[in-house]
Design goal:
The chain is α/β, with parallel strands linked by helices. It has helices spanning 18-28, 58-61, 77-89, 101-105, 109-115, 139-145, 168-189, 199-206, 208-216, 226-229, 276-283, 297-300, 304-315, 320-329, 340-344, 347-352, 392-399, 404-412, and strands spanning 9-13, 32-37, 67-71, 92-95, 120-125, 194-198, 251-255, 266-270, 334-336, 355-360, 364-369. Strand 1, helix 1 and strand 2 form a beta-alpha-beta unit. The structure holds coenzyme A.
Length: 425
């Protein structure tokens, strides 16, 4: 089986998490991703949160599968020559440097178009054009400025960031979609284009339902929020909703058997209207099926605390598997809280390739999350991340066509090695 993006060459100047997430997905689908890294240092994440001394961190290895690495000093004249040849050779350039970095290197969009009019130039920045465009941004800054944090957590607590990396990885996924869209457009126009995604915009897009609620506030209280049933008035902005469901079917995280000792002994329970009768039977409240205070969804909304309290009395008597089995028999939507440990041991995730074991020359075997997007007619395998500069020679010779003497000249000029420090006076 072939790979969907075979033949697409990506000049990957991305670093940390947001850009690498994007190029990793493209690499899984078969694009040739050439990661340009600063000589001697490489992507900063290689050395961050290291669990094994002097070995590429899991932070790096889990975000850079299936790529090739070339070290190149883009401030060295010979290095710039090589970079320009890469720009002329590749289809897509991906970067998520701080604002203005590539322009300062001399590679404005105008210059890139001169070098290669078919080039798709894809960037992630923290903010779009406006008052904050020059700011550097990391994950949690994006979660806070994109509306996620103000709507996450409990009403009487501070705003919360989530563990899912919606700012970095979420924006990387948006960028990936922008790139394949631009590649598709190029098949008709013959021209490249600029693709940009701001992390604030990506998070806001993912928090879209909260912008829905912001507008609903003008027309009255948000009746599905627990706060409504508790008689607490709403303010001017969407409040934090705890674990209330963000959709039209009320839901809660409820304790299950063993909650006293196990921090993850909880289950998400959704009181979907069509299965209300089944819920009443399961929890032992058959009278609620016809009682005017409980029978219809609008009557239930002001009583959610009481209703979920009763359901929790039932879930507290069941283990995760017992509850899942009983509830799924009745098509009652529910989800146990799964820990990272449980997910790392879940054989069914390995069977689909969503979890994979990878072998690395200096680290040995480690687990990674594989490609969550499955295509029926295109293969997607996970190969280990490259060592720093592992493919420098191969890329210079095979991708860029430099003869041996020119490769030697590039190296002698210091284009692939760290700049020498000036001797102390
Ligand atoms: C993530 C971020 C905050 C990191 O900031 P940083 O560590 O200060 O790095 P920057 O991207 O600003 O700058 C990189 C520098 O390295 C230099 N550099 C990078 N690769 C190089 C290479 N191969 N050779 C020579 N220099 C190189 C750049 O020229 C730049 O130097 P300059 O500032 O003198 O022009 C910043 O890159 C950023 O805001 N990115 C956009 C938003 C984003 O993606 N954030 C999430 C990251 S997961």
């Amino acid at each position: 089986m072939g790979k969907a993006l075979e033949g697409v060459k990506i000049l990957d100047m991305s670093h940390v998490q947001a850009g690498p997430t994007c190029t990793q997905i493209l690499a899984w689908f078969g694009a040739d991703v050439i990661k340009v890294e600063r000589p001697g240092v490489g992507d900063i994440t290689r050395g961050q949160l290291q669990d094994v001394p002097k070995v590429d961190s899991l932070y790096f290895t889990m975000l850079n599968h299936n790529k090739r690495s070339i070290t190149l000093d883009t401030k060295n004249p010979k290095g710039r020559e090589v970079l320009e040849r890469l720009i002329k050779t590749c289809d897509v350039l991906v970067e998520n440097f701080g604002p203005g970095v590539l322009d300062r290197m001399g590679y404005t969009w105008e210059r890139i178009q001169e070098l290669n009019p078919r080039m798709i130039y894809a960037s992630i920045k923290g903010f779009g054009p406006g008052p904050y465009e020059d700011c550097k941004v990391y994950e949690n800054v994006a979660q806070c400025t994109g509306g996620a944090a103000s709507t996450t957590g409990f009403r009487d607590g501070p705003p919360l960031v989530t563990g899912a990396q919606i700012g970095d990885s979420g924006t990387g996924l948006h960028l990936g979609l922008g790139i394949v869209t631009a590649l598709y457009h190029r098949t008709k126009s013959g021209k490249g284009q600029r693709v940009t995604v701001a992390m604030q915009d990506g998070v806001l897009n993912l928090a879209r339902v909260k912008m829905r609620d912001q507008q609903r506030l003008k027309h009255g209280p948000l009746t599905e929020y627990s706060q409504h049933g508790e008689g607490i008035p709403f303010g001017e902005a969407v409040p934090r909703a705890g674990n209330d469901s963000g959709g039209g079917q009320p839901g809660r995280i409820l304790k299950r058997k063993g909650w006293e000792k196990d921090p993850n002994a909880y289950i998400y329970f959704i009181t979907q209207a069509p299965v209300w009768d089944a819920i009443c039977d399961v929890i032992g409240e058959p009278g609620w099926k016809t009682h005017p205070d409980y029978a219809k969804p609008p009557a239930r909304l002001p009583r959610l605390n009481e209703i979920f309290g009763r359901i929790e009395k039932w879930t507290m008597t069941k283990t995760k598997f017992e509850a899942m089995e009983i509830l799924n028999n009745y098509d009652i939507p529910c989800g146990p809280i799964l820990s990272m440990k449980e997910l790392a041991e879940d054989k069914s995730l390995f069977a689909t390739g969503t979890m994979v074991e990878v072998d690395h020359p200096t680290r040995g075997k480690y687990l990674s999350v594989g490609n969550p997007i499955k295509l029926s007619d295109s293969a997607s395998e996970v190969k280990r991340s490259p060592l720093l500069g592992e493919h420098t020679d191969e890329i210079l010779r095979e991708v860029l066509g430099y003869p041996a003497d020119e490769v030697a000249a590039i190296k002698a000029a210091g284009a692939t090695t760290p700049p020498k420090k000036a001797a102390a006076e």
